[in-house]
Amino acid sequence: MDRTKCRRCLLREAYPADYEKYVASVLARMKPGARADGETYARRLDICRACGQLSNGTCMGCGCLVEIRAAGRGERCPFRKW
Question: Domain-by-domain residue ranges, the chain?
Fold first, then answer.
C-alpha cells in the first residue's frame, strides 16, 4: 500500500521521514508545561484520525498540523471534539 496517497492518515503514518524531520522537532522544542500529557495527546490524535476533516495530517477546518496542535496543553479542536 502506498502510504503517501493516504488522506486519512497522520503525517507520521503517511510521511515518516517528514514527520521525523519537522513534527518531531517541533514537539521536542515544546516546553514540558506547555505539552499535553501522553494519554491526552493519544486520545486527541485518535479523535482527529476518525474526523472527516483530516487530510494528510492537516485539519481542513483550521489548516493546522494536527500532531502539533494536539500536543499543546491549552489547544482546542476547532470543531470542539476535544
Answer: 3-69
pLDDT score recorded for residue 6:
64
In a 10 Å sphere around its CB, with 0-12 CB exposed, 13-18 middle and 19+ buried, how is residue 66 labelled? buried
Check if the beta carbon of residue 13 is closer than 8 Å to that of residue 3: yes
Handedness of CA 11, 31, 50, 63 (dihedral sign): negative
φ and ψ of 52, to 5 deg: -70, -10
Strand partners of residue 72: 35
State which amino acid sits at residue 38: G
**Alpha helices for the chain (secondary structure H):** 11-14, 16-18, 24-29, 38-50, 66-69
pLDDT tens per residue, range 11-69: 777 777 777 778 888 889 999 899 999 999 999 999 999 999 998 888 999 999 999 99
